[in-house]
Design the sequence.
């Protein structure tokens, strides 16, 4: 029986690191069948290019292509193995929740893989991260695309909003419950991001169990080299992607090209999270996190230590 594991890449929860430092190396070592993606390693599964892969992805998530590229049947991206776990890892599954007020991506995944391809062994992997660090980190990464340039304004607009859009994915309980409703609780695997930093032995063992490999195999992967990590310069977060319209960024690039000047001081910065902002996030999500731990049999003591609830 073919087993498909879909990693719902939560934002800023080591998705890029896992894709490039774990999933792709295991695929090349013939231990799993990785369907894509690992953009940083120029790996797109059965697709030839990043655009081609994205077009396939949007064919069932958004029902429309992103780019005008020659059509190619890459349904062989489902060239599923019978003896190894088949893995699809995709951060866009959370990002595309921005378009509607209700959770809908899980339904579309089910329609495509279970109803459309008649797969009966589909499981879900989600790496959870505490919202008090997750939301700020995500805000910094997407800063140039967010209207509210003050983090406090962003929180006040989104928390309690009737149209939270993408912000709703930070309610881990509701997101996980949606996938459990459609795929079954026993097929939804949850791992804490914080274990990657604080309890690597537990993280490795949990991930190995889900992937069906030995723990020693995960231990050999380069998880210490965190990709896409937010840089902090002089007490401020520095967005990885800068707003090209900013004069200061253009000046920085000019100085770097012409004067070989280390112009990090001119890079756009987002102030680190304030205690009152952190407390607002904590109070908003703590009860949901507590219910999540109870309903899905997670380690309550560990989650309490990691700041999910008190």
Sequence:
């Amino acid at each position: 029986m073919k087993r498909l594991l879909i990693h719902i890449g939560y934002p800023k929860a080591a998705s890029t690191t896992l894709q490039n430092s774990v999933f792709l190396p295991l695929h090349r070592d013939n231990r799993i069948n990785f369907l894509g993606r690992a953009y940083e390693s120029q790996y797109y599964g059965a697709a030839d290019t990043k655009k081609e892969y994205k077009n396939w992805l949007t064919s069932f998530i958004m029902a429309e292509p992103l780019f005008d590229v020659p059509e190619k049947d890459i349904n062989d991206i489902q060239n599923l193995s019978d003896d190894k776990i088949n893995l699809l890892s995709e951060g866009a599954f959370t990002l595309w929740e921005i378009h509607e007020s209700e959770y809908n991506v899980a339904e579309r995944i089910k329609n495509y893989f279970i109803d459309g391809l008649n797969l009966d062994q589909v499981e879900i992997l989600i790496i959870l991260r505490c919202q008090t660090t997750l939301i700020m980190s995500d805000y910094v990464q997407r800063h140039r695309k967010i209207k509210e340039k003050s983090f406090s304004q962003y929180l006040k607009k989104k928390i309690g909003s009737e149209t939270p859009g993408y912000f709703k994915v930070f309610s881990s309980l509701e997101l996980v419950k949606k996938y459990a409703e459609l795929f079954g609780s026993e097929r939804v695997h949850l791992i804490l991001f914080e274990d990657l930093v604080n309890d690597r032995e537990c993280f490795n063992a949990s991930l190995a169990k889900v992937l069906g490999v030995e723990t020693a195999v995960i231990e050999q992967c380069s998880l210490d080299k965190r990709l896409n990590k937010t840089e902090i310069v002089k007490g401020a977060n520095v967005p990885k992607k800068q707003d090209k319209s900013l004069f200061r960024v253009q000046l920085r690039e000019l100085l770097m090209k012409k004067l070989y000047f280390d112009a990090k001081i001119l890079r756009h910065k987002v102030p680190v999270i304030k205690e009152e902002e952190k407390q607002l996030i904590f109070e908003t999500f703590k009860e949901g996190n507590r219910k999540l731990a109870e309903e899905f049999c997670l380690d309550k003591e560990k989650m309490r230590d990691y700041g999910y609830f008190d």
Observations:
- The mean pLDDT is 85.
